[in-house]
Amino acid sequence: MRIEDDGGECASIKQLIFAYYVTGHGFGHATRVVEVVRNLIAAGHDVHVVSGAPDFVFTSEIQSPRLFLRKLVLDCGAVQADALTVDRLASLQKYSETAVQPRDSILATEVEWLNSIKADLVVSDVVPVACRAAAEAGIRSVCVTNFSWDFIYAEYVMAAGYHHRSIVWQIAEDYSHCEFLIRLPGYCPMPAFRDVIDVPLVVRRLHKSRKEVRKELGIGEDVKLVILNFGGQPAGWKLKEEYLPSGWLCLVCGASDTQEYPPNFLKLPKDAYTPDLIAASDCMLGKIGYGTVSEALAYKLPFVFVRRDYFNEEPFLRNMLEFYQSGVEMIRRDLLTGHWKPYLERAISLKPCYEGGINGGEVAAHILQETAIGKNYASDKLSGARRLRDAIILGYQLQRVPGRDVSIPEWYTNAENELGLSTGSPASQMSESNLITNLCTEDFEILHGDLQGLSDTMSFLNCLVELNNFSDSEKNNEKPQMRERKAAAGLFNWEEDIFVTRAPGRLDVMGGIADYSGSLVLQMPIKEACHVAVQRNHPSKHRLWKHALARQNAKGQGPISVLQIVSYGSELSNRGPTFDMDLSDFMEGKQPISYEKAKKYFAKDPSQKWAAYVAGTILVLMNELGVRFEDSISMLVSSAVPEGKGVSSSASVEVASMSAIAAAHGLSISPRDLALLCQKVENLIVGAPCGVMDQMTSACGEANKLLAMVCQPAEIVGLVAIPSHIRFWGIDSGIRHSVGGADYGSVRIGAFMGRKMIKCIASTRLSQSLSTANGVSPDELDNDGLELLEAEASLDYLCNLSPHRYEALYAKLLPESMLGETFLEKYAYHGDTVTVIDKKQTYGVTAAAKHPIYENFRVKAFKALLTSVTSDDQLTALGELLYQCHYSYSACGLGSDGTERLVQLVQEMQHGKASRGEDGTLYGAKITGGGSGGTVCVIGRNSLRSSQHILKVSCLYEE
Predict the structure, then answer these.
(1) Please, which pLDDT band fits residue 817 given cuts at 50, 70 and 90?
(2) What integer is the mean pLDDT of 359-384?
């Protein structure tokens, strides 16, 4: 419906004109649009489709003069490096080229075109700029989708850098001009939209029966048929006859024109009508997308899927697929090496149970028609873009913490209530009161160790008991269950010993990123922790998962030692819940493989890269301590430490994992040595250039005390008691932090560049001094000055340089920034073994080098102040040191809008009228850990009023 200046309506009920924009991301969107468009045309309306998809996608289903096709791509979706891998940086760059740089001309062109066709309604799936163009043309617009690009790109910003975040904001703002959202099942959180109408699955109709399709293909009913539906095959992949079980055939969609196929693989034409072929098959093998999932559910076809890297739509569709007992996950390694048999056999044993509607196209078309006529579905809510702020930038929806789930789809919430399931770690969901009254140790015996009154550990132990019971009752239970729980139930031999360890996360009070420069740091363990259960068994007695057994049988070597890991909390993330490998993969001849090879091994499949934190501990023990593992190992990992919040979730996993492996194998490793070994896991296998303070705090810290440690490399000074009148809080900014991110790594490189330059300057000055002193008696020489220069010429850690020496001799000589290539030409090497300089990148030097030098001084002052006389001045000084640290982070480029806002709110609370004339409450705040988001540490008076102010800060931040 067009909006005239006088407010009148000029729509005709008999014939309406729709402009339907389709995203340039793959065929899936175009195929579902076909069904909506078909129903609109059947109702007598004209539809102009704006799409980059081939014409046959539309014309094979719709032959009508009311269909108008306009070849145009106004967004790029996600750029894929291959069929399974999304290139995040390339996606943002391509979107910028496609939709941001030519934005003004796009808007002008689209407004003119919409007016020229006299469109009554603009429909978008899900092109952002279409909504804005409609608004400028004075035409209402509606989106039809299960995800939006602001949500998908939010996670990419973290990898590519914050300078791209304006893209996400612009997309959200464009969507906010949309009247309302027609939301499809399996949807992601989409906060940019004001109003939502849910519809059933949009599924293309069948043209032929299963019997007709098989007859045309010459395939009998006795033949098992799998349809391979990847929309293109992984690079360098060659299909082989032995990939399929005997008596099976495979239909290949999107087949390569040049590749030859084995006799049991049948190449399909490019324009083959896949819904008919899907309905004629016994199962499907492919990647998850709305089209494949909706058609698998609609036609009750088991779906063997392989995860696609970095596409955040997937977890929501995956959980819907598995809830209706239609999904089997295949790990990428088995896909590419041809170990398909156990997955296909598992798939055909499923009983898909989706009974919901599949007429979403018809329902959506009716709503669009009613809207174009003049019906108003929208409310007066505020624009979604105003509510976004940093929350959407973080992709926080995929990083849920127990009790803080946001916008989980209704079907998932209902599933939780029905099945008694939860979205996070089972061990972290029970309330404190329930833990005390309901948990007991009657079902298991603790042979060694002590619970130490830790309720979360008791909960984890009872979780193991539940798994044992689950294993016994699973065959009689017809309800669908979470896959990670089923995998865990088959992990252990319940008659043998299981070793359980616990390692906490930490709050970075002072020190932060200065740890890799040798600073004194003050770190506090938090109550949230990671638990790991480990069991070792002789290979002949080890319980293997079906695909692992099939892989072992294929090698024909008999039982060999295998590592199997289950990680809880993966159901709403994009990581696989299980990981397995032959331990022989860690060996090359008689020696363990190198860390570089291990890093590449785990990087092959990003959905399983998390396993590097766990399995990497085994390789480090092999390389550093000469340990050899002959038995198979089973591990269950359950962490309540929030991921990406700057509270050392990765360190807690590493420390708990290595502690459990060591205990199970009788290895005695001191906490300090264990922390240093775990740092090697993160630096050399995971590839994150962190310092050692995280692992040290997790391994050596004590509750309610600050661990004081000089990171040269890891010397514990002592435990500092927190005075009873002082309290620390951690507030989550909602912004995902990563020490593996570009910002953290570039600042670290900048600091080491600065150290190298300072050493060179000191060496030059020393040479000049010695040259000038030629012929001067030793008594006349300034030996103290020469000793200082000698020390600085061989400076091991930046923090060994005092602030006054830095200011007096070096500050003015360091460049603000330097191109990597320029540095390498002049200095050759920056002296850091865990980072690599990119020749084309410019690194900040002055701020990165200055920060640790001054931070070390601030931490020393902070530690001394903690033991000073209790006073308001003491708290004010402590708080000021936190503020100084925070702004030093920002100067390095490690700030974020969210954390800046939180610190600002603390300052407003500190200096507000409510805090005057009374005892103060909050005194200081700082970003923590690696920066660029995560958690903000706040210091204040230990009082009820302070806690109330913390709550108020949190509430104000969320508004």
Answers:
(1) very high
(2) 84
Q: What is the mean pLDDT of residues 655-676?
A: 96
Dist CA 852 CA 858 (whole Å): 9
Q: What is the pLDDT of residues 777-810, one digit of tens each?
A: 555 556 678 899 999 999 999 999 999 999 999 9
795 is written with which tokens? 């400076």
Please count the other Cβ atoms lying within 10 Å of the Cβ belonging to residue 642.
23
Mind listing the pLDDT tens digit for each residue in 637-654? 999 998 877 888 999 999
In this structure, the strands spanning 591-592 and 499-510 are: unpaired
Peptide bond into 126 cis (omega under 30): yes
Question: What is the greatest pairwise CA distance in the chain?
Answer: 107
Give the integer Cα–Cα distance in Å for 677 and 698.
13
How does residue 380 score in pLDDT terms, banded at 50, 70 and 90? low
Question: Going along 23-71, which residue ranges are E strands?
Answer: 46-51, 67-71
- Tell me how far apart the terminal alpha carbons of the chain are, to the nearest angstrom: 34
Residue pair 185/32 in contact (Cβ under 8 Å)? The answer is no
Question: Residue 784: exposed, middle, or buried by beta-carbon count in 10 A (0-12, 13-18, 19+)?
Answer: exposed
Task: Enumerate residues 6+ apart whose C-beta is below 8 A from 154.
Answer: 168, 312, 392, 393, 394, 395
Mean pLDDT, rounded, for 846-867: 96
Helix (H, G, I), strand (E, B) or coil at 848: helix
Q: Is 694 a residue of the active site?
A: yes
Element (H, E) at 460: helix 455-473
Cβ pair 882, 925 in contact under 8 A = yes
Beta partners for residue 844, in sequence order: 817
Q: How many angstroms separate the CA atoms of 909 and 907, rounded?
A: 5
E strand intervals along 853-934: 922-927
- Residue 330's φ and ψ, nearest 5 degrees, are -110, 130
Phi, psi of 62 (to 5 degrees): -125, 115
∠ CA(426), CA(427), CA(431), 5° rounding? Answer: 100
C-alpha–C-alpha distance, residues 436 and 440, integer Å: 9
pLDDT tens-digit profile of 606-629?
778 899 999 999 999 999 999 999
What are 157-167's pLDDT values in tens digits? Answer: 766 655 677 88
Q: What is the spatial distance between Cα 455 and Cα 439, in angstroms, rounded to a whole number?
A: 9
* Angle subtended at Cα 685 by Cα 681 and Cα 689, rounded to the nearest 5 degrees: 75
CA geometry: angle 555, 559, 563, nearest 5 deg? 95
Query: For residues 91 and 412, which has the higher predicted lDDT (pLDDT)?
Result: 91
Helix, strand, coil abundance in the chain, percent, nearest 5:
45, 15, 35
Of 529, 929, 937, 510, nearest to 699 by C-alpha is 529
The phi and psi torsions of 578 (rounded to 5 degrees) equal -130, 160
- Sorted by sequence, the CB contacts under 8 Å of residue 322 that are 6+ apart come out as 480, 482, 483
CB atoms within 10 A of CB 686: 23
The active-site residue, picked from 174, 694, 732, 832, is: 694
Is the model more confident about 236 or about 840?
A: 840
Distance (Å, whole) CA 188 – CA 406: 11
β-bridge partners, 562? 582
Of residues 48 and 575, more confidently modeled? 48
Model's pTM, two decimal places? 0.76
Q: Report d(CA 329, CA 571) in Å as an integer.
A: 12
| CA 858 to chain CA mean position, Å | 33
**Concatenated DSSP letters of 89-141:** HHHHHHHIIIIITTHHHHHHHHHHHHHHHT-SEEEEES-HHHHHHHHHHTB-E
Cα 356 vs. chain centroid, distance in angstroms? 31
Token digits of residue 651? 């360190």
Q: Is the pLDDT of residue 196 over 50?
A: yes
